[in-house]
Amino acid sequence: MSKQQQQKIVQYLNEAHATELALARELQAQIAMTPKGGYRNALERHLRETRQHSSRIEERLGELGQGANPLQLGVGVVQTVAGQALALAKAPLNVVRGSGGEEKLLKNAKDACASEALEIATYISLARLARVAGDQRTERLAESVLGDEQRMLDRVLGEIPRLTDAVTRAEVEANGSYDVTETGAADAAGAVGAAAKRTARRGTGTARRTSRQARKVPGVARAEGTVKGAVGSESDLAISGYNSLSANDILEKLPELSQVDLAKVDAYERKNENRSTITSRIESLQGDEPWPGYDELRVDEIRAVLSEGDEQRIKNARAYERKHKARAGVIKATERELSKDATSVRATTATPRPGLQKESSGTESRDGSTRRLTQPPGAETTNPTDSAVAEWRGSNAVDSNGQKIGTVEEIYMDTETGKPDWVAVKTGMAGSKLSLIPTAEASETGGQVRVPYDNQQVKDAPAVVPDHELSQEEEANLFRHYGFEYSEVRSDPGLARGSGRDTVGHDTSGPTTDDAMTRSEEELRVGKTSRERGRARLRKYVVTEQVQQTVPVQREEVRVEREPITDANVGDATAAPEISEEEHEVTLHEEEVVVEKRAVPKERVRLDKDTVTEDQTVSEQVRKEQIEAEADTPGRA
Description:
Elements: H1 3-32, H2 38-63, H3 70-96, H4 101-133, H5 136-171, H6 185-189, H7 192-209, H8 220-231, H9 247-253, H10 259-271, H11 276-285, H12 299-306, H13 311-323, H14 328-339, E1 346-347, E2 358-359, E3 362-364, E4 369-374, H15 386-390, E5 396-398, E6 404-413, E7 420-427, E8 433-438, E9 443-445, E10 448-450, H16 455-459, H17 472-481, E11 485-490, H18 570-574
């Protein structure tokens, strides 16, 4: 490697050395106030690793002869002193921050995440620089330390939810468990079962973390992929033979890629072909993983995380898996975990209250009126099965044009019938609003829930409060918004309140329900969807043609002139010998054609698109019911 490259590597090694020394001081301060247990053991283990890292860096600096360069030595000393000063300044702050021991531990864990992320970035830069310079020993050193730092970051990230729960119990529920003045008090207060669960979680976590790379730092994956795709080549992509594949072949492979590989392909595609079908599909697949490092986990490792029972994490994993790799083992595991908590299904109608009784023709309200719910004209009369609707949680909901509305958050059931009535979809900015859509109008297509309404109509639906039973007024507003009939008709005068009137006759085709039958018709609903019709491109090529052009040219020809001897020329005539031989030469000239060619711009040509509207006729058969009266008694109908 060159002298300049070696100097830069020495500079980066000094920076890494300074961060290691600073981290050692910070870990010592945190260990002093962390109760005994698994988390403290992890901090102590990483302190030993940090000291080893520092020694290995010092050894490598000695091999590179840093001591012979006063300038680099001065830079290293300044960085080391600055890092230690920062760590020493933070040590007393760690002791007094927060309102209690639990809060202090949580804030220290957040600081540890920031410190580990900084070290990871430092060693990524060092490994990259050493690789370019051909310094294999420094590269191996950086990658080895990088693995230790990544494992510690994952460990601390996994600890933050538990520390947050401890803060909630201590400061909200007044049930504190941590006491930094008594080492080990926190673990002694824990139950044996909880300790076993934490041990199992650490075991599965260790298996998960062994294969993770620095890209697990939140927000790094997509940025890393974008940078690599923009400067990389076809061989850097996760799709083999990318340039030789058609757009359809690439689209089939995209769901199998991780977020970092999707970002690589997106940046590479935009830099080269920039095909909108591919970039749009990548955009629809990009998003946050259910948890950091999910894409690199095996199925058994994902199952281990799901078994911890975090319902939101399980739902996120199911939705993400359905949209991407669609591994049956993962999807089945999520379904199994969710089925353990059947009480998560929420009701949409209020539990029967005094004075609110169910009638055969409807449901009686407090004032004796009866509400009747019927489908709007053209509504489907066959609902999806209950089990099929229950599977919609976590799926994308799309409108009649195929545009995404949001994510199905929950299925709302009717407490009286037990049937699914509404699909709850997260809409608005960052899913801040919950919109309800009738299940009677919804269907599942290709893993998506399609509804016959446009995006705006769903988002304009009356807002509902999550985890709240719908009142009669809220339900009526929703039915009217989607075009359902929701009427309240007063009971017949003189009848006892809530008694209704007796049913006239009985049904011969099945159980008697009421004294009327509903007549329905099918109505044709025609929507539009956009698809790729074809492609047009401009291609420039070279043709050769023969060009003829007439050019006038001149030449000289000899001409003999004779003149008689006169007094004027007799002197010239007698100047030569009287009798002699003589030659006279004349040079003749002629013009010849010279051809020269040059390229001259003639015109500019581009492609543009015009939208042409034409009418197309759609023909389809629809069914409708007819009702006619028959009478067995002669003369009466």
